[in-house]
Every structure is written in C-alpha cells, then in structure tokens.
Amino acid sequence: VSMTAIGSDGSESETLTEFAVVFEADGKQMIGKGEFEVDSDDGAEEFEYGFEIKRKKDGSLKGDFEFEYEFESAEGDDVEFEFEATAFDAFLVFTDWGYAEGSGELDDGTAVDWFVLAVDGELSDPEGDDLVRIRITLAGDPDAVVFDTEPGLHRFDTPTLVVDDGKIKVLRGDTTPGEV
C-alpha cells in the first residue's frame, strides 16, 4: 500500500507499508464519570475518574481528565494518588468506543503520559456495560508504568473493566451531547 498524508500546513509525506488502518477523526465528544474496582493483593481498591474530551470546530482538542484513588500502604499509612491531564494530543472515535491520549502530572508534580479507552455499552447493546481502561506512564517512557487498569492489554484491545458506578458517553460526529 502506498499512502500519502497531507498535513494541515499542506506538507506531504508518502510511505509504503503492507497494510494501513485508518480512523476517521470525526468524534465530537467523550464523557465519563464514575468509579470502578480493581482487585489487588490487599483486596478490592476503589478508583474515581472523570473526563470530558471535545473536538472543537477548528479540529483542536479541549478537555478535562482527573483520576484518583486512596489506598493503604504496606506500612499502614493512607496514601492518596491523584492525576490531572494538562494536554490532549489525540482523540479517536470508532463505532462504540473513544480513545484519547495526552500528558499530565501527578499530585507530586511528576510529569506523565496517559491514555484512556472507553466503551459506551449503549451504542452496541441497549443493556451493554460501559467499559474503561486507563494507563499512566512516566513522561517519555511508555514502559515505565505508573498505573494501568489492565496490564498486559495492547493499547487498542477492548477493555474488560466494567464501570461500577457512573456512565460513559461516546458521541460521534452525527450525534448531540447527552447527560452523564
């Protein structure tokens, strides 16, 4: 396959490849808010998250994404982990899921990269479960995992983590926002 990409500045780049996957970047918005549990050696841990990522009319991205959880350390101390996105670099929508990535920082100022893949269960089945995957790594080092709801999954594998309390809405280009 010969593929030519044309940038917004008019520059062209041609490449040869055995195959290509193309996503139409027409997604308008991805909204999620809620809680989920992850089993650990110390029992189930509860996590809270909230995100709203929008594609503006000019194609740029705008959003908010926060994630936090509290746990007890091995020493018995209460520890709070907080993350906040500072930049949104990519946003894709494909059928019933949305994907976004960017950079941010932890509450101690550590720079990180992140991605979230969220499945809107209602888009494929009126009774379908909403699913979410959140992965946070040290900035510039995708192998230095700080947090991952589903370690070992490929970036675009469908998450299996069900949103316990909350809602995910993925809005394609032909839909209007609803409440979460």
Structure in a nutshell:
This protein has 180 residues and is an all-beta fold. Helix content is 2%, strand content 57%.
Topology:
Elements: E1 2-6, E2 12-16, E3 29-40, E4 43-55, E5 61-72, E6 78-94, E7 97-106, E8 111-119, H1 121-124, E9 131-138, E10 145-148, E11 165-171
Antiparallel strand pairs: 1-2, 3-4, 3-11, 4-5, 5-6, 6-7, 7-8, 8-9, 9-10
Instruction: Write the element-wise H/E pattern from the N-terminal end onward.
Output: EEEEEEEEHEEE
Q: Which regions have little confidence, pLDDT < 50, spanning 5+ residues?
A: 175-180
- Cα gyration radius (Å): 18 Å
- The percent range for strand residues is over 45%
Global geometry:
globular
Count up the helices. 1
Q: What class would the helix/strand composition place it in?
A: mainly beta
Number of strands: 11
Largest sheet: 9 strands, antiparallel
- State mean pLDDT (0 to 100 scale): 82
Summarize the amount of helix as a percent range. under 10%
Overview of this protein structure:
The structure is a single chain. With 180 residues, the chain is mainly β. The protein has one helix spanning 121-124, and strands at residues 2-6, 12-16, 29-40, 43-55, 61-72, 78-94, 97-106, 111-119, 131-138, 145-148, 165-171. The protein has a 9-stranded antiparallel beta sheet, with no helix packed on it. A two-stranded antiparallel ribbon has the order 1-2. Strand 1 (2-6) and strand 2 (12-16) form a beta hairpin. The N and C termini lie far apart (42 Å).
Question: Any key phrases for this structure?
Answer:
1 helix; 2% helix; 180 residues; two-stranded antiparallel sheet; disordered C terminus; mainly beta
